[in-house]
Amino acid sequence: MSEKLLEVKDLRVVYNSNEAVVHAVNDISFDLLPSETLGIVGETGAGKTTAAMAILQLLPERTGRILNGQILYKGEDLLKKTTNEMRKIRGACISMIFQDPMTSLNPTITIGDQIKESLEIHNHKNRSKTELDARVDELLTLVGIQSSRKYEYPHQFSGGMKQRVVIAISLACNPELIIADEPTTALDVTIQAQVLAMMTELKEKLNTSMIMITHDLGIVAQTCDKVAIMYAGEIVEKGTVRDIFSGDHHHPYTVGLFGSIPDLEVETKRLTPIDGLMPDPVNMPEGCKFHPRCKSCMEICRTQSPKASRFGEHVIVCHLYDQEVCSWNHY
Amino acid sequence: MEPLLKTVGLKRYFKVKEGDLHAVDDINLEIYKRRNLGIVGESGCGKSTLGRLVLRLLEPTSGQVIFEGEDILAYDKKRMKNMRRKMQMIFQDPYASLNPRMSVFELIAEPLQMNHIYPTQQQTAERIAKLMDMVGLARRFINSYPHELDGGRRQRIGVARALALNPKFVVCDEPVSALDVSIQAQILNLLMDLQDEMGLTYMFITHDLSVVKHISNEIAVMYLGQCVERASSRELFANPLHPYTKALLAAIPTPKLDVSMKKVLIRGEVSNPINPKPGCRFSPRCDFCTEECMKDLKLEDQGDGHFVACRLYSCGSISE
Amino acid sequence: MLKISGSAEKPEDMQKKRSSFINADTWRRFKKNKSAVIGLVIFLLFIVCLIFADLIVPYQKAIEQNLRIRMQGISSEHWFGTDIYGRDIFARIVHATRYSLFMGIVSVVVGIVFGSIIAAIAGLYGGKIDRCIMWIMDTVLCIPFMLLALAIVAALGGGLQNLLLALVIASVPIYVRVIRSSILTVVESDFVEAARSCGTPDRYIVLKHILPNAIGTVIVQATMSVGTMIIWAAALSYVGMGIQPPKPEWGSMLAEGKDYMLNAPHLVIFPGMTIILCCLSLNLMGDGLRDALDPRLKD
Predict the structure, then answer these.
(1) Measuring CA to CA, which residue among C223, C216, C241 is closest to residue C296?
(2) Closest-CA residue in chain A for C32?
């Protein structure tokens, strides 16, 4: 079945502050099939969280604006939906896991009640209180927490456990798509391993699709089927996980990212980081946004934005690949 | 050769309602000049506390900290102030560690002014400019405030400030954890270059094993206040002995495909550091735990400077 | 201007160090908040009354009684009408500004100064000293403000000085609480630890690191407290314990007029509105100041 679950086309998001317009996301497109995991990789300021929030239309009301694009969920454009319709979709069809479990749980409500909240809001089948309670127990067991702990408060749990509660909340209504925004960044590495293993297991069991936003390429290699690499609000490279990790051709930024990671196996004297910093979103460079930091920068990069070159599912947006016409097709 | 810094039986307990919280328990370390020591562990293992104890930013409950042959815990206030010039710290959070109301100039000037290094304002200003050049911070930021700069630049301010007094020994408390991957690499390179230039010695505290491997000559693994394994960098990664070290290494997601999902060797959560029971603190989560593990363990030399505190390797015999 | 030799940057780029507390940035942010600016303008009008009261309207007019024209309404001669003794209400309101605003500002300033000292001692030394001080403060806080102020005034007699003393004593515990909790938060900060690690002595840490960062919240509360103190002063005068006649005071004007509210509402409306306006302007300014002072708030 190749019906796309989610299709994002030419999404553009800006933040209007008093002083300037911040171009957070610039015409990105990607899609996701059912039961697939897409990893969105990028550093701080790349626009990954903004893109995720735009899908669920959770952008800050006063400043966030979606200027352009379509977000097709099972064929229907989410941007055309009313507030009420979006509310029905959030939690039930698409749910989100936020980064910091310390702050995403309400400290004054028991975790059992917080899980139940989601169930009560989307209770279309009019299930009784007992049925809802049973479901809460089921979810807690699913994430590895004793169901007797549902009367406890968030502060009584450790970071890893809190994140499991957050995952339970996100799974409560059996959503088809989960957007996980750096779900394990705030956790210790051994707890991260546990939580990631659990998420992978649940994903397979429940056939959920996932968008995993992260800056950690290791997590991407372990959990994702497809990858999109974002830089300064644009997708500079995307493809299957094999294309990104084993392929020969890459965007210079991708090469830089891999070069910045200290390898556990190979001994290197110095790391090869990318010089400079991500551009100010208020003041983007002309032409290719990466050109000031690119080791392979050419004249054309300074003036013209590169087009996307694609080979099968692998897309690279870089002038370096304009020339290889034989094996790569313009898009 | 005498170590630059040595700790003997260093302990720090915090009194809480329920009893004593064993934050750092009986740590014995030796750091030699120009040989960096990495301290690795997860949250709650006591590594940050250890960093502060070594600089005497926290008073230990018991034990000794011997720097260049002398026990700094015996120093009075005045001598300690002088000692501070030789040992400095780079803090983790590049935002919380900088006073939001002070400009870059004032932040880097503070250690110089408090220690009356230069008699004139002009000389201080020149030194600050040189320091900024050394850490790769553009001079135009000299009057900027921390909130105007990004994480990488703020951390460079922290580095400049730590190096202002020309110390010999620098404790780096998770200096790159809060930074993006490419900025991390820049700062790590900077730290290594500065070490070569200034002859520094680092104690590098982090939870990220890949980072510590890069910058340390020797690594000590901490768990719940105790040191469970210590070896040279190469040896630890090639041949980890302690079950916790093995689990820690296995848990790191590698950015490579076709690496089969390593079996998660660790289960459960960290146990309570308050009034801990005697014996190995990792035993509740260890697959190889036996009766023997309830007895107190000491770090034992397995040869080649590789120490481990585990009954699997006691008395020089490897039993599994 | 600092000259750095061998610098690649031009000397013009090395600006003079900006004052780290209130600077051009703060003012710019403050200006953007329209309600805060309105508050400031209104407050400045009151300050003008405070300073130039005699020039606006002679003091005589405020205290001269003329029973023949008592309780008259608004007229071209008496803009706000006359009170029960025939005195010009407008003149009384203008001159009362001197007492009311003065009391409000001075009581808050003195309160904060003492409050900071006590809070610093409590917050920095901790332990028994902290507990002892906070115990005293909590005890004082338990007594209702009005009761405490009344008791002090009753014991010492009325008049401006004793009224000020009563207001200060009753409000210091509140400032101590707020400043102390700010101090405790700041003391734990990494940057205080960083300062300690480079050998900064304690007194510098308090002056340069702790107080500037802890006092921010208090400054804002201070502007709002001025309004509160004005109301308390008015309340005390209302019950006859504050400013003694014939000196005009907004609260005592309310007291005098209350029995005649139905026939001559202007007797209470004007003093009442003045109190409201003064407090409102201070509150708006306080809000604006809080937003402007935080260096981390994005524009």
Answers:
(1) C216
(2) A18
pLDDT class of A227 with cuts at 50, 70, 90: very high
- Provide the phi-psi class of C65: left if phi over 0, else alpha when psi is between -120 and 50, else beta: beta
| B115 contacts chain C (CB < 8 A) | yes
CA-based nearest distance C242→chain B, Å: 42
Residues of chain B in contact with residue A258, where contact means CB-CB under 8 angstroms, are: 255
CB-based contact A44 B214, cutoff 8 Å: no
The C-side interface with A (CB below 8 A) comprises 32, 298-299
With contact defined as 3+ CB pairs under 8 Å, the chains touching C are: A, B
| Assigned CATH topology for domain B5-86+167-316 | Rossmann fold (3.40.50)
Can you give the pLDDT at residue C295?
Answer: 58
B89 neighbourhood in chain C, CB within 8 Å: 194, 197
Helix (H) or strand (E) holding A238: strand A234-240
In a mutagenesis test of the B interface, which of C197, C206, C210, C294 is the best target, namely the one with the most B β-carbons within 10 Å? C197
Residue of A nearest to C298 (CA): A17
Domains and CATH numbers, chain C: 25-293 (1.10.3720.10)
Q: What is the DSSP string of B194-233?
A: HHHHHT-EEEEEES-HHHHHHH-SEEEEEETTEEEEEEEH
CA distance A40 to A267: 29
Rounded CA gap, A153 and A159, in Å? 13
Residues in C touching A19 (Cβ below 8 Å): 299
Considering only CB atoms, which chain C residues are within 8 Å of B125?
2-4
Using CA atoms, how far apart are residues A216 and A58, in angstroms rounded to an integer? Answer: 24
Please tell me which of the candidates B43, B211, B264 has its beta carbon nearest to residue A197: B264
* High-pLDDT (> 70) share of chain C, %: 89
> How far apart are the C-alpha atoms of B244 and B229, rounded to whole Å?
9
Instruction: State the pTM of this model.
Output: 0.79
Contacts of residue B247 in chain A, CB cutoff 8 Å?
190
Is the Cα dihedral B247, B250, B253, B254 positive or negative? Answer: positive
Residue ranges of the domains in chain B? 5-86+167-316, 101-164
**CB distance C196–B102 less than 8 Å?**
no
pLDDT tens column, C237-294 = 878 777 777 788 888 888 888 888 888 888 899 988 998 999 899 888 888 887 777 6
**Looking at A75-84, A235-244, C42-51, C154-163, which range is the least confident one?**
C154-163
Q: Are B210 and A262 in contact (CB under 8 A)?
A: yes
Backbone angles phi, psi at A301, to 5 degrees: -65, -30
Q: What are the residue ranges spanned by the domains of chain A? A: 101-174, 252-330
